[in-house]
Amino acid sequence: MDKNDITIERAVLAGLNAASLPQSERSTDITMDELAALVETAGGEVIGMFIQNRPTPDPGTFIGDGKVLELKDFIAANECDLAVFDNELSPSQMRVLSEALGIKVLDRSGLILDIFAQRAQSREGQLQVELAQYKYLLPRLTGMWTHLVRQTASGGSSPIGTRGPGETQLETDRRHIRRKIQKLEEELSAVRKVRCTQRRRREKNAVPVVALVGYTNAGKSTLLNCLTGSDIPANDRLFDTLDTTTRKLRLSELTEVLVSDTVGFIRKLPHHLVEAFKATLEELSYADVLLHVIDISNPDWEEQAKVVDGLIQQLGASETPCIRVFNKCDAYVGILPHGEDIVCLSARSGEGVSELAQKLLALLEQGNHRVHLEIPYSDAGVADALNREASILSLEYTDTGITAEVVVPPELFGKVKKYIPGYVEPKEDWED
Predict the structure, then answer these.
(1) At CA 220, angle to CA 284 and CA 364, rounded to 5?
(2) In 3-state terms, what secondary structure has residue 391?
(3) Which pLDDT value is given to residue 41?
(4) Higher-pLDDT residue of 340, 253
(5) Which three-class secondary structure state does DSSP give residue 267?
């Protein structure tokens, strides 16, 4: 074999549709197709797919002994290297299945972690993936060591004199991993401090932040490129973006924003992965506006949007103003969604992107006032407030005072309106 050749692992997929599982945890044709796409993203080839229907998961094998035998026969006949389960398996179930099937067994969480490990480019992204992997590995150590002990002892128990070292090694490994987790959490805490400093600087400079969120492969990176004229790699594959990318976007002569692309969400995203990526994802809760990008060409877009909405809420950003951006509308046949905070576009062709920019500008400038001010020198301190909180178009010092042309936010307007020449308070509807 040529050294450049890459061995592609042949994978069989298995899922459980059990009535006792929450709806979000059950395997369906849609979740299995998504799992197949994940395997292909990881560099594997899907050979077969099995869904088992039963009332409850089997405590030992998860899918039941009969389905395990069926899988084993299929694996032998098709020379599979890997079995991937759509549901999260317990450490003991993973060990039992691995022994029964005779090949490597992964669950959905393990597969997603593997993809993240391939994709992470920045030091921060690599730290976050490593932390999630160790948290995933820690509860599975016992099962791994039981597996080794059973291999070295007849009848499933260790010979006299060999039990101590095994237990010692297990505890040593646990302590080592806990130390690694603590060290990684400290490093990520330092990353958070840097982000916090950057965020304070942005707030001081009054630069609004717009965060792109959405299901994986919804087209967020393509939209960022289209809006900002960037050339960020945007491929048609899951989890193509792991490291947050930020670009400037000028919406008008007065308004410039920072647009951040974030990691895509997916159903059944491992909890420890969300926890690990909080250093990146917490940017959502500090954003001024969210753009929720939805792939309307996907038949399952409504469920995907619900998954993203749930994670936005989990990350504490549900109160942030949000525009729902329906992408790939050129590939959709039917009536497009419409509403005040909805834009339909095609990020690839650029159709509808200018409408999004206008809607975004209107949302950010909501309540802003462009005014001409004449401030006497006795109130010169007002100029400091304008420098901090307003957009100054022109500022001139005259013999009588300060003349300024500014755009002020609603919270500052009440303080400066008395300096507007000839300003009269508008009457309410009920006043004569």
Answers:
(1) 50
(2) strand
(3) 86
(4) 340
(5) coil
